[in-house]
Design a protein that fits this description.
97 residues, mainly beta, four-stranded mixed beta sheet, three-stranded antiparallel beta sheet, 39% strand, globular
Length: 97
């Protein structure tokens, strides 16, 4: 069985590794690109909103919460910086971008 992780990235947050196909489970986490942010995500392919789960970052220099994928998964997310700016003008009200 293959594990496939498809990502829907919007900077300033990245997922590492950013997608891929593997015969074994894939372990992944988010990474900030420019500054700490609150990252909301979904694993079911649905559009993330402010009600979606939040990624737990341990600290700026720590890896934060890791996710283990054992089956084909579509990961979608968006980030909000400390000033409240939503990346790439994404509309997290449920209507997407």
């Amino acid at each position: 069985m293959s594990t496939v992780v498809t990502t829907w990235p919007l900077a300033p947050a990245l997922m590492a590794p950013n997608g891929g196909i593997s015969q074994t489970p894939i372990v992944s986490t988010f990474e900030w690109v420019n500054e700490p942010s609150v990252i909301h995500y979904t694993f079911d392919g649905s559009t993330p909103t402010t009600s979606s789960p939040k990624w737990n970052a341990e600290a700026p220099r720590q890896p934060g919460q890791r996710f283990r994928f054992n089956e084909t998964t579509t990961v979608k997310w968006f980030a909000v910086d400390v000033a409240g700016n939503v990346q790439n003008n994404y509309k997290p009200d449920g209507n997407g971008k």
